[in-house]
Specification:
Number of strands of chain C: 10
Structural class of chain C: alpha/beta
Distance between the termini of chain C: 38 Å
Distance between the termini of chain A: 25 Å
Largest interface: A-B, 99 and 99 residues
Largest sheet of chain C: 6 strands, mixed
Low-confidence stretches of chain C: none
Radius of gyration of chain C: 18 Å
CATH topology of one domain in chain C: Rossmann fold
Chains: A alpha/beta (about 375), B alpha/beta (about 375), C alpha/beta (about 240)
Helix content of chain A: 55-70%
Helix content of chain C: 25-40%
Strand content of chain A: 5-15%
CATH superfamily of one domain in chain C: P-loop containing nucleotide triphosphate hydrolases
Shape of chain A: elongated
Shape of chain C: globular
Order of helices and strands of chain A: HHEHEHEHEHEHHHHHHHH
Order of helices and strands of chain C: EEEHEEHEHHHEHEHEEHH
CATH architecture of one domain in chain C: 3-Layer(aba) Sandwich
Strand order of the largest sheet of chain A: 2-1-3-4
Number of domains of chain A: 2
Radius of gyration of chain A: 28 Å
Number of helices of chain C: 9
Number of helices of chain A: 14
Oligomer: heterotrimer
Low-confidence stretches of chain A: none
Chain lengths: ~375, ~375, ~240
């Protein structure tokens, strides 16, 4: 045990000496949390639109002023001709155009029916959908004002409640994802590279001939990263609670325990990669392609899994970060207890044990 | 000029000799361009709906069948109580709960109005937002349908109706791939250019060959240009491959002119390669260069408007995107490929990227020191 | 005799550490000048300053008549350099390396062709000329490095431990190349750890802890230190060193 501690101490001094890498290790989660938390929101607002008003009457003006008042829209230009719409779409900034036909109010009053045309730049389908919905709502709103004098018969109202995330902020979705991503980066990539580096420079041989059990040498290299990762988890949680106002709804203890489990899973993967490879570049590529990319793609925090083709959906099940992401989301955002996530926990545990056994086995083969 | 010729000869020889890396450069973007748009499908569909129907009336049944007849919703639960349905949300089996109160039909007819309750799992904001909006629209359509039917028997049809017709330009089928593929291609060009150039000079430092170069009377600018051109050619090749893949796999062909695209990508490549070379001159080891580039590429992608529109970002974030070369490429690619924007529409973007290219490359030349 | 290298109290500091401490010496045209010293004595640092790879902290030096502060690029046109670590491109062939460096130094295509032919002839590399450098044995790599360093007929060649790690026979052949070059009037500035190689030099300087403690011809040095071999001279001086590696 004493030997183990002295090995761990040696590793720590290695890790702490490389300032540039340390800076990135701690800077990366910080920047990611800031970007995800503040910059990326699902809410669509301040969309630039143009208005083509052939009517120029009371009704069209009233509706336009409603659009002006809405924070969803910025009216860029108005009173243009129909042909100019195409031109301004091509210049890039305009997302939608509203066209009022001539004699809009007159038609509305006389025939009880008038048309408004909405043209959306659908190159981004989701934004197009969202803003046309907003626009329809604004126009409906005007309509119900018209009808205020007479009660609309048979009206169905919907009361919509946004659970967990009433402001539709990006953070609740992204914070668990960033945690998985950062832990992957630190534990898998850093561990794998640092062990392989010792192999490359030949210092590994020296360690392996020491009387200390070789596999413990490997484990001792993982300990500093375990602690570093815990610091990262703590700082991400603190940031999200105090800066992003995203409270931890479930048990903090459970969250930490699950994080430790995931960190160990990642370390095992890192150790496994380091045993199987012999150059830093290869270790780096495998960690990037085999671990980081699947985490981004298949854990579900960036890309909706249910929209993927079936083969890809099946692949997502072997990505450990997917399970961790589900666990963190359940505990942190939904405030669920262990009884809801025991299945995911068991899967992570299984993956860990599998790679641990595989690592120890292939390590023994290498030595003999 | 002659020096540059020899530098190019050397770089190309080295690139073509390293078959593994060359294959990686060519194959990886193609594979990614095939897989990524499949994964990055943000189209909101397959929304899992759970219904709690306390009414069990003709109207409530009609409403439910109207909703499930649309392609957006999938009925995954038909629960007795809200708590039961809420559990489905907790288990991620449902995204939306629609609760129909007891006496829905009766009250609607008698009291002229009735309320429905919708709960949305809003952890994923986009999905929640659109899902909620879709459901509302469907309910409204259902509403006016029954209103028309109920009013048929009465005389007083006095309400004024405003018809809103929506046309979706540039992507009439609202296909998400059409939106994502040009953006992903932009990201791939950024990544390939950035990583290749960032790792290059630093590799010569690690191997030691840079010493032999530094002791020659070679001009710094020649050296940087000699590094720039081969990667510029490679970047254009990757870009061309990407265009072919988007055409063959996704059937996307640029609405605008290829010339505009290539002009912009050419200038952009100079900018991103300059950035990579700059990183390379700052680092001592490939590992460092890799990490630093990884850090920046991540910011470039996230702050580039690939996933979420830049206009929705807060002010400070929008300022950051102005310094992100990738955001201009993503925007331009979408403009030219989807909308057919031409030179005139893109003058500003081209100008800004050209300034990026000049500043970054000058900086790289200045920061590359032959003498310590 | 023309002086091609002249230094005056040339010093390089890295923070508190003085790598090269006020060294002063001159090297004449056509000389083979040996630069000796224990590991960490400051040889490589001194050499890098003379090659224009490193700017001195203080003192003066001219190489081929050019100032090491302001005219580093002029110096580089007139010198050849072979570093401790093999630093030609391993993923290029012998001919490609020659063509590349020849081109960088501004040789014409015709010159490159003639040089390549004579070089391949001289080193007996007919079979290897079109093979990648990475496959060559170390001895041949070193000969090739040297040949590339003198490709553009420089006035001075700097060799930093050119023969580390090879057998005595190969070292012998390497020194024949050096003599051939010196015969054409090229000045050779060489660092080494091998005392037999020191004997081949016209004059040698021995550095201890950043300073030059002795400078003369091998014969005179042995006389001065009352020693039978250069080995003994070196031991007497190096024993007093405080810097270990």
């Amino acid at each position: 045990m004493k030997q183990f501690i002295s090995f761990v101490k040696k590793e720590f001094s290695h890790v702490l000496r490389d300032r540039r890498t340390l800076f990135i290790l701690f800077g990366m989660p910080l920047v990611q949390i800031l970007i995800f938390g503040f910059a990326l929101t699902s809410e669509v607002k301040d969309s630039k639109i143009v208005v083509v008003d052939y009517a120029r009457d009371n009704a069209s003006r009233a509706i336009i002023s409603k659009f002006e008042a809405s924070h969803y829209f910025d009216i860029e230009k108005s009173a243009m001709s129909h042909d100019d719409i195409y031109k301004s779409f091509k210049q890039g900034k305009i997302k939608m155009a509203i066209v009022f036909p001539a004699k809009f109010n007159e038609t509305l009053l006389q025939q009880n029916k008038a048309q408004i045309q909405i043209i959306a730049d659908a190159s981004d389908p989701n934004t197009a959908n969202t803003i046309t919905n907003y626009a329809s709502a604004i126009i409906n709103d005007y309509k119900s004002q018209l009808d205020k004098t007479m009660a609309v018969p048979y009206q169905i109202f919907t009361e919509t409640k946004m659970l967990y995330n009433p402001q539709l902020a990006g953070a609740p979705n992204f914070v668990p994802g960033v945690m998985a991503l950062v832990l992957m980066l630190v534990c898998v990539m850093m561990t794998a590279i640092s062990i392989v580096k010792e192999k490359e420079t030949g210092t590994m041989e020296v360690l392996l001939v020491s009387p200390f059990k070789p596999i413990w040498v490997i484990f001792s290299k993982a300990v500093p990263y375990l602690l570093l990762s815990l610091v990262n988890v703590a700082s991400i949680l603190l940031l999200s609670v105090f800066v992003l106002d995203l409270p931890i709804n479930g048990s903090v203890l459970l969250l930490l325990a699950e994080s430790v489990l995931f960190i160990i899973t990642c370390l095992t993967l890192g150790i496994f990669i380091s045993i199987k490879t012999s150059s830093q570049q290869v270790a780096m590529l495998i960690s990037l392609m085999g671990m980081m990319l699947p985490t981004v793609l298949f854990s579900g925090f960036m890309f909706p899994i249910e929209n993927m083709p079936l083969p890809l959906q099946i692949i997502t099940n072997i990505v450990p970060s997917k399970w961790y992401y589900v666990i963190v989301k359940s505990i942190m955002i939904k405030g669920l207890s262990f009884s809801y996530i025991w299945k995911e926990t068991l899967i992570l545990l299984g993956i860990t044990l599998f790679f641990l056994a595989l690592s120890i086995k292939s390590f023994k083969i290498r030595l003999s | 000029m002659r020096t540059i010729k020899f530098l190019l000869f050397k770089e190309f020889k080295q690139i073509f000799r390293n078959r593994a890396i060359l294959a990686l450069i060519m194959v990886m973007p193609v594979v990614q361009l095939i897989i990524l748009p499949l994964a990055a499908d943000y189209e909101v569909k397959n929304i899992n709906l759970s219904v709690v129907d306390h009414d069990h009336s003709t109207y409530s049944q009609k409403l439910i069948s109207t909703i499930t007849a649309t392609p957006y919703f999938k009925l995954t639960g038909y629960n007795k109580s809200y708590d039961e349905a809420f559990r489905l949300i907790e288990l991620d089996k449902a995204d939306l709960v629609l609760e129909i109160p007891q006496g829905f039909e009766r009250n609607l007819v008698r009291e002229n109005q009735q309320e429905l309750f919708v709960a949305v799992n809003a952890i994923n904001g986009t999905k929640a937002n659109l899902g909620g909006a879709y459901l509302n629209t469907i309910i409204q359509i259902f509403n006016s349908d029954i209103r028309v039917k109920l009013l048929e028997h009465e005389e007083s049809n006095q309400t004024q109706n405003i018809d809103v017709t929506v046309s979706n330009w540039f992507n009439p089928y609202m296909n998400y791939h059409v939106f994502m593929v040009p953006g992903i291609l932009a990201v791939l060009v950024t990544m390939i250019g950035g990583f290749l150039s960032a790792l290059n000079i630093v590799k010569e430092k690690e191997v030691g060959t840079i010493e032999q170069i530094n002791v020659t009377p070679i001009k710094k600018s020649h050296f940087i240009i000699g590094k720039l051109i081969p990667f510029w050619v490679l970047g254009n090749v990757v870009f061309t491959l990407g265009l072919l893949v988007s055409w063959l796999v996704y059937g996307i062909t640029p609405v605008g002119s290829l010339l505009v695209l290539y002009v912009f990508v050419s200038v952009f490549l100079l900018a991103i390669l300059g950035f990579g070379l700059l990183v390379s001159t700052f680092c001592d080891t490939q590992q460092q260069a890799m990490f630093i580039m990884f850090f920046f590429v991540m910011i470039f992608i996230l702050m580039g408007g690939l996933f979420t529109p830049i206009e929705s970002m807060p002010g400070w974030a929008q300022t950051v995107t102005k310094f992100n070369p990738a955001s201009y490429l993503i925007e331009t690619m979408r403009m030219v490929i989807l909308k057919g924007s031409g030179f005139k529409d893109l003058l500003r973007n081209i100008g800004i990227i050209a300034i990026f290219a000049i500043v970054l490359n000058l900086w790289a030349v200045l920061n590359y020191r032959k003498t310590s | 005799m023309e002086t091609v290298i002249r230094t005056e109290k040339l010093t390089k500091r890295f923070g508190d550490f003085i790598a090269t401490n006020e060294i002063t010496f001159e090297v004449k045209k056509g000389e083979i000048f040996g630069f000796l010293g224990a590991n960490g004595a400051g040889k490589t640092t001194a050499m890098r300053m003379l090659c224009g790879l490193s700017i001195p902290s203080s003192g003066d030096a001219q190489v081929a008549g050019f100032d090491v502060y302001k005219q580093t690029e002029e110096i580089k046109k007139n010198i050849g350099y072979m570093s401790q670590k093999f630093s030609l491109y391993e993923d290029l062939t012998i001919l490609e390396n020659i063509k590349f460096f020849g081109g960088i130094y501004g040789l014409t295509d015709k010159q490159i062709k003639t040089k390549s032919d004579s070089l391949v002839e001289k080193l007996g590399l007919h079979n290897e000329a079109k093979k990648l450098v990475s496959g060559l044995p170390l001895g041949w790599k070193q000969k090739l490095s040297f040949s590339v360093a003198v490709l553009h007929d420089p006035k001075i060649v700097f060799l930093d431990e050119p023969t580390g790690g090879v057998d005595p026979l190969t070292r012998r052949q390497f020194w024949e190349l050096i003599y051939d070059a010196a015969d054409t009037g090229v000045t050779i500035f060489v660092t080494t750890h091998y005392m037999d190689e020191a004997e081949y030099c016209n004059r040698i300087s021995i550095m201890v802890d950043g300073r030059i403690d002795a400078l003369d011809s091998p014969v005179n040095l042995k006389k001065q230190f009352n020693a039978n071999s250069m080995d003994e001279v070196f031991y007497q001086l190096a024993r007093g060193a405080k810097r270990a590696e």
